[in-house]
């Protein structure tokens, strides 16, 4: 059973601690505000109120035995930094630290921290992508301007088979899978469920409520969307 | 040229406004704190200091002509809610609203808001996945327990070809692409660059620093990682 500690129980730390615990991991949740510790104590194995910049208090929690420690402190960068330095001195196996803005990331990199996260930035960029290109539902950016995107079926392509559309031949795109909405009657009320069609055959016909998930270069994806709007 | 407004310039709103502007969109950035407006004014088309719960002030900015408006206010849920109600009354085409926690999401859904985002939750869940499964680099969750994941090449599989590994035949997984690290000499100093190998052939050999990107069911992905640790 893996053991994790999460320091700082704001929205970000809380989400990590709760998800890890729900997936069966042993979680030690730490915050210097009593009401945060009270809020989470029934959902995790251990919840402790302490100031993570206090080395003796951290040691007393056997923090170095954790498989990983997440530092999710937000506004107070000094406390975040000091906590991170203490964890490195205690030789914790894996440290994941939150940062906001380029300067904070640079300082943490200089300290030898490899796993740095900026939740706001990561989602901020993803949302901007979706706003700029309304037919893109989500995207996973990859090196060399490749990406994996979920695209709402363009109007021009509804009721056509995948062979007729020719994703690879005409647009240099690779289909991964298809998401389709089904109307289901539950307790007499119509409801919508979304399902994945595994690896679709080339004879599959696209419906207007489908979403296709493709892999390819960003400029090929943009061209595909523009031509078939 | 698309036109967007971003209301609330905390870490989340700032990241969205900056990314949209860098990608060439026209952005109107709004906050009720003067110093936030000062901070962003050189990076966006327009930056205005106003209280977004003031209907007259919002109307004066021609906010209903925007292609989309993002409400990124954080701590003050009342202001977030009132702003959202005003935008719906002004019949803005597309409204994207931030929420933290299930209750806020439920209230916004009752108001007919379709695009609701929780940056901390979204990243919190992704981080928990990566902590629980150290060989998973990133993952895109899909319906029916399918997912697309980046997996570090398991030790057992280095120096073997994709045919020998038999992703589809033995594990029911579909390879999308491969990420490979290359050592490059720049100005006399060794540096690492990561590249995508497009759609690899079945004779491609996996190196220990490669990352494979696959599509399949979560339980098949977990089985693949466990067997080849
Ligand atoms: N020295 C410390 N020791 C332990 N916990 C701390 C310390 N300093 C701050 N925290 C806790 O870290 C949590 C997150 O920090 P903070 O509220 O500053 O960030 P935030 O940006 O509002 O968080 P989020 O965006 O995740 O909601 C808070 O609950 C706070 O009590
Ligand atoms: N009525 C309002 N009109 C305009 N701006 C507002 C209003 N209320 C709050 N804001 C602004 O919204 C921004 C984000 O809100 P807040 O600081 O409460 O959230 P936060 O959770 O700290 O943000 P983040 O996590 O994005 O850093 C702030 O810059 C704040 O000034």
Which hetero compounds are present in the coordinates? adenosine-5'-triphosphate
Distance between the amino and carboxyl termini of chain A: 50 Å
The string of secondary-structure elements of chain A, in order, is: EHEHEHEHEHEHEEHHEEEH
Helix content of chain A: 25-40%
Features:
homodimer; 229 residues; alpha/beta; Rossmann fold; Alpha-Beta Plaits; 2 domains; six-stranded parallel beta sheet; five-stranded antiparallel beta sheet; 11 strands; elongated; binds adenosine-5'-triphosphate
At a glance:
By secondary structure, chain A is α/β, with parallel strands linked by helices. Chain A has nine helices and eleven strands.
Tell me about this structure.
Two copies of one chain form a homodimer. Chain A has about 230 residues and is α/β, with parallel strands linked by helices. Chain A has two domains: about 5-115, 3-Layer(aba) Sandwich (Rossmann fold), CATH 3.40.50.720; about 125-225, Alpha-Beta Plaits. Chain A is built from nine helices and eleven strands. Chain A has helices spanning about 10-20, 35-40, 55-60, 75-90, 100-110, 120-130, 160-165, 165-170, 220-225; strands spanning about 5, 25-30, 45-50, 70, 95-100, 115, 135-140, 145-150, 175-185, 190-195, 210-215. A six-stranded parallel β-sheet of chain A has the order 3-2-1-4-5-6, with helices on both faces. A five-stranded antiparallel β-sheet of chain A has the order 7-8-11-9-10. In chain A, helix 1 (about 10-20) links the parallel strand 1 and strand 2. The longest helix of chain A is centred in the middle third of the chain and has 14 residues, at about 120-130. Chain A is elongated and about 70 Å long. The N and C termini of chain A lie far apart (about 50 Å). The mean pLDDT of chain A is about 95. The complex binds adenosine-5'-triphosphate (ATP) (2 copies). One adenosine-5'-triphosphate binds near residues 8, 51 and 53 of chain B.
């Amino acid at each position: 059973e893996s053991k994790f500690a999460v320091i700082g129980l704001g929205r970000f730390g809380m989400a990590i601690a709760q998800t890890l615990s729900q997936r069966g991991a042993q979680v030690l949740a730490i915050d210097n505000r009593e009401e945060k510790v009270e809020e989470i104590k029934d959902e995790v194995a251990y919840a402790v109120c302490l100031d993570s910049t206090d080395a003796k208090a951290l040691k007393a929690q056997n923090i170095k035995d954790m498989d990983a420690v997440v530092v999710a402190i937000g506004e107070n960068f000094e406390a975040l930094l000091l906590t991170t330095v203490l964890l490195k001195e205690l030789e914790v196996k894996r440290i994941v630290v939150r940062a906001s803005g380029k300067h904070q990331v640079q300082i943490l990199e200089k300290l030898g921290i490899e796993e740095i996260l900026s939740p706001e930035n990561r989602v901020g960029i993803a949302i901007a992508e979706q706003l700029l290109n309304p037919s893109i539902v989500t995207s996973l950016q990859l090196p060399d301007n490749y990406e994996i995107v979920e695209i709402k079926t363009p109007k021009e392509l509804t009721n056509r088979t995948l062979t007729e559309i020719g994703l690879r031949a005409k647009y240099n795109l690779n289909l991964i899978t298809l998401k389709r909405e089904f109307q289901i009657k539950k307790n007499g009320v119509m409801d919508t469920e979304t399902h994945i069609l595994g690896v679709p055959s080339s004879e599959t016909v696209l419906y207007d409520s489908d979403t296709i998930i493709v892999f390819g270069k960003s400029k090929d994806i943009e061209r595909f969307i523009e031509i078939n709007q």
